[in-house]
Amino acid sequence: MSNIYNFFSLSIYRDKIKLSEKNKKEMVEEILKMKKDSDKGLKPIQNAWTGDTHGHEYLYKNEKFHLFYKEVEKHIINYMNHFELDVNKLEFYFQRSWATLSNSQEHISAHDHSQSNLSFAYYLKKKKGDAQFVLIDKTKHNEFIPQLFTSVSADRNKIFKKRTTSNIARINIDPEEDDIIIFPSKTLHGTQKNINNSERISISADVSILAKESKNLEHLTPPFKEWKKFENA
Ligand SMILES: [Fe+2]
Q: If you compute the radius of gyration of the chain from its CA atoms, what whole number of angstroms results?
């Protein structure tokens, strides 16, 4: 019998964060306030409101989000276990964090967070039918005919009998409220277009991972405490 080996996978983490309804309500109210204070109608009408581009990119400094980030830390560490990393040799930093809010057909176009290592999306408010989370594969190791996996005409002509994880370059995840999804920051991602959202609120953050000890070690960023800031810049 023949075998197929699937190598070089992309591993996406998903779990739930259970906060009290009271705490969630406080967080929602804070985010609505941020949006109200910063939304000058400057963003393109089809784009979701994103806190990072409206002066609210350090959400973890807000006390009302304290418990939430404590929970996120546990999930990031869990995700690291999947990669068999020794977290005792690493230090983790939230480098920025923000909320997103989508109403009606607002969406978030495909992008990545290439200045960071890990990112997440947590769904503070999400109803059934709100836009799904979209992941896009840049590597496409299996795509031996270029652009075939995303070809609209190939789909129209039913070139594929069936779509499986071996022949796709894009996948939708339909998160529920309270879900957290963690992924490598370099992964292209966005939200579904042409969907009617009813105040869909998510929280994201970028996480940097550094070495605790840099001696004889390449590739990992040295510990933050050893860095020296320019004196004249
Ligand atoms: Fe993002």
A: 20
221 found inside a domain: no
Cα of 1 from ligand 1 centre, angstroms: 43
CB atoms within 10 A of CB 75: 19
**Residue range(s) defining the domain that contains residue 171:** 13-212
C-alpha 113 – ligand 1 centre gap (Å): 6
Here the CATH number for the domain that contains residue 124 is 2.60.120.620
**Separation CA 93–CA 204 (nearest Å):** 14
Q: How far is the CA of 208 from the centre of ligand 1 (A)?
A: 15
Structural domain total, the chain: 1
What separation in Å is there between the alpha carbon of 211 and the centre of ligand 1? 25
Distance CA(28)–CA(223), nearest Å, equals 35
This prediction has a pTM of 0.95
Q: What does the pLDDT profile of the chain (233 residues) look like in tens digits? A: 999 999 999 999 999 999 999 999 999 999 999 999 886 666 788 999 999 989 999 999 999 999 999 999 999 999 999 999 999 999 999 999 999 999 999 999 999 999 999 999 999 999 999 999 999 999 999 999 999 999 999 999 999 999 999 999 999 999 999 999 999 999 999 999 999 999 999 999 999 999 999 999 999 999 999 999 999 98
Is the residue at 164 inside a domain?
yes
